[in-house]
Amino acid sequence: MKTRALGRQGLRVSAMGLGCMGMSDFYGPASEDEAIATIHEAIDRGVDFIDTADVYGPHTNEQLVGRALRGRRDRVVLATKFGNLRSADGKWLGIDGRPEYVRQACDASLQRLGVDHIDLYYQHRVDRNTPIEETVGAMAELVRAGKVRYLGLSEAAAATIRRAHATHPISALQSEYSLWTRDPEAEILPTLRELGIGFVPYSPLGRGFLTGRFRGDEDFRDNDFRKQHPRFQGDNFTSNRALVDRLRAVADARKITLGQLALAWVLSRGDDVVPIPGTTTRKHLGENVAAADIALTADDLARLDAAAPVGAASGARYPEGGMRSING
Fold first, then answer.
1. Is 27 among the residues known to form the active site?
2. What is the pTM of this model?
3. What pLDDT, in 10s, does the model give residues 259-289?
4. Which residue from 14, 25, 47, 174 could staple onto 154, CB 3.0 to 4.6 Å apart?
5. 15: Cα within 13 Å, side-chain hemisphere
6. Catalytic residue selected from 27, 56, 121, 177
């Protein structure tokens, strides 16, 4: 597995990471034993960039990742996030970026993960009621204390990224990016490249939709949160299924899977881009990792631009409440 730099502060990670959210939350039940085995195999295959967050579970995903990394901590770059608040029963409570909460959240994550430092610490969502300078200032204190090595933001607007980076160097921005979510290309990616900040796309497989596995409601479990997302509903679902069918022609021509095509496209967007596809099984992990060795041709890229141009997806990427929390 090749490596890529995130930011100019010295952070290097595998060209593809592993998102662990679905191992504990949002997509329905998953086998913890298989999840831990998947993390172990990812590390053995050279995937050293492991991503979690305190809100996943809530809290249980950090605990799972911590168990998986026992005896392997020195082989990974561990990323987690703070800022989204949930009650023990999963109810969403808001966003908190106050300095006192930053310190509290970091200590809690360190304890759940069972580690003495976090390699990359993200603000998961921007708290519009707390100046970003105050939040990042508190995060910088964690760096000086040795609890955190590098700082990141998630779903932040360009102006916020600039203000944060002026307070303390930001190494990475994590935001949604894929063949059906190309919004960052307009302003976010140019800003990141001007400032020397790496980009970590989450949901590079369109929450699984770009793999072609979802053809109807019967393909979702009852408690799958995707059923509440506009892109997975009604006429939007039908329209987006047609988008996937257009992509399938390109994948078939290359004799690769739709998921591998989607990941190879994200990887092709620049050496400062490190996607973190999520999976709960070793089978899908192997398919994803193989995408790192697929080089798309100029003709492939042109066909993909025609099949999935900016704005091609139908529907907002989150329900109304979620949309209010992005681009902060």
1. no
2. 0.97
3. 999 999 999 999 999 999 999 999 999 999 9
4. 174
5. 20
6. 56
